[in-house]
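Ticket #4471: structure output looks truncated?

Reporter: J.K.
Steps to reproduce: submitted the chain below (90 residues) through the standard prediction queue, then opened the result file.
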Amino acid sequence: PTLKAIPHGVWMALIAFELICSVGLMLPAFSKPSAQLAPSAAACIAAEMVLFSVVHLASGTTQHGPMMYWLVVAVVCAFIAYGRFVVSPL
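Returned output as attached by the reporter:
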């Protein structure tokens, strides 16, 4: 309910953004030259999840269940991006 403050047009743009990022996460499995897309897409998704958490906190609600999900997704995506950018660069 805290994300209802985001306009419908922005939601549509976020849906397209997430679909592009999900393709960016899967495409390197099929095409090795596009391997740099995975960490970039993971970093973008992590940033988006942190943004959702900030919007949730700014709303002032006391229910933090959705925020915990977003933060877990952000941590997993940040781990993927860190591993691909720093630990094992492509």
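Triage note (M.O.): checked the attachment and the full token line is present. The chain has a mean pLDDT of 88.
Status: closed, working as intended.
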